[in-house]
Predict the structure.
Amino acid sequence: MATPIPALELTNQVFGKWTVLSPAPSVRGKHGKLRRYWNVRCACGAAGVVGVNALTMGRSSQCVACGRKASAAKHTRHGRSKTSQYAVWEGMIARCENPHHGSYHKYGGRGISVCAEWHDFTKFLADMGPSNGLTIERKDNDKGYSPENCRWATVSEQGRNTRRNVFLTHPADGRRLHHSGWAREFGIAPSSLQWALKRYGLVEAFKRCEARRKPPVS
């Protein structure tokens, strides 16, 4: 006899604007298949009952009223729905609020959120101004998206401000640069510097790199 598949435990999980509260009575469909439902509450306070598949597959993420507001905002004639700024704004919202987004675990999944004002694209645009082909950067990567914590930056500038970025202090003169900055100064690839650090440690790696210093990599 096959072992029955246990029901998903979704209590307290968040799907878009829905927060799952408790299981609701299950219903059998016309073919006898059991359909499971959950009691949920929207961020606006509205309560609802949503099927497990609608939640986990992203078909339901908010109450009807919030859905109408979002639709109205999306179709507002701000004339910029096809601009790079709008694409950045949409991506920012998705990373922070859609659990099914590929990068959600790096943003919404670790508590990064979008401030209330920036759920309105026109306010986001008013605060940030034109992007001129740049990307949005958070000054403090442990804080969310807000006027105080965001700016437009080049890809290389943003790359220096990632959580994985490592700053190193020169053991002799005390200068402090990020990993890629030292690699550029030594005229080697960042991967080569990383290899030397792992093999020799900071002091010996810096000595060896300086002894073989090449013109800086442009």
Remarks:
- Residues 1-5 have pLDDT under 50 and may be disordered.
- The longest strand covers residues 18-28.
- Helices lie at 52-56, 64-74, 84-97, 121-128, 155-159, 179-186, 190-200, 202-211.
- The longest helix spans residues 84-97.
